[in-house]
Amino acid sequence: MKTQIFFVVAAALLPSVLGDAPKLNQYSSLDDCQNDKSILYHAAPVSGRCYDLDDATAAFFWNTGGMLNPRVYTGKGCNGIEDPLSTNGRCMEKGKYNSYRCS
To answer: Where is the signal peptide (predicted)?
Structure first.
């Protein structure tokens, strides 16, 4: 019984421990991203899954939601050159990057 209570309490506290939910929003401009307007696509990233950035995307916002090791890749499908991102999400110009993964 004590074990069940522990898991119920742990599950209830987990969102507050992890912070905000993971987020990957794509925008057609950096200004749109910084002002959170005219969003093109929204995803709630799952750890380990690759997300391709749309060709119409000029900027994106990420929030790791407690996951570690956010990465961007120059190729689609999380291929090509890999660069780390800060665990503190922010708006970023897409530039040469075409996919995103967080683990």
So the answer is: 1-19
Mind listing the pLDDT tens digit of every residue in the chain (103 residues)?
554 544 434 444 444 444 579 999 999 999 999 999 999 999 999 999 999 999 999 999 999 998 999 999 999 999 999 999 999 999 999 999 999 999 8
Topology given in CATH for the domain delimited by 20-101: Gamma-B Crystallin; domain 1 (2.60.20)
Q: Could you tell me if 61 and 49 are in contact, meaning their C-beta atoms sit under 8 angstroms apart?
A: no
Model pTM score: 0.79
Q: CA-CA distance, 56 to 11, in Å (whole number)?
A: 38
49 Cα distance to chain centroid: 10
